[in-house]
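fyi for ur records
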Amino acid sequence: MKKISFRNDVLPLKNMLYRLALRITLNNAEAEDIVQDTLIKVWNRREQWDSIESIEAYSLTVCRNLSLDRNRKMANLSQSLEDVGTDQPDGAQNPYEQAVQGDRVRLVRQIVDSLPEKQRSCVQLRDFEGKPYKEIATILGITEEQVKVNIFRARQTIKTRFQELEEYGL
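which gave:
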């Protein structure tokens, strides 16, 4: 059995925890606070680490639950990821292409932000974090089949809304 180390096993998860919290709360400061709270909660359970099958899945579950609790308290679902600094996509050679590409990225982000929470979390964990269905199911407390359905519906919604907005404009 592997001995879990906070420094080597838990701390490296903080960026992933932040992205998950940010995807749920849509607020930088809240996401940072949630990551801190998550790390404290995980640390406080260090006596039970040996009984936890995956410290990563456990940490993501704690982070998700804290994010949802914070969302319920704050009820600020109207904010966007607009104020988040992100990497610009590659491949755009001139300023016009860069602007168009940036607009498309913002549009997809807004569509993802508008998805129901379960779909948003599933897409975040699968498409952005690369988690397997089984682990997503464990983290979200749903079946693998429900994960697949949520991801399918989310992707369909993203594709449809993106195509509508690209064709007909805002």
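DSSP finds eight helices and no strands in the chain. thats all i got for now
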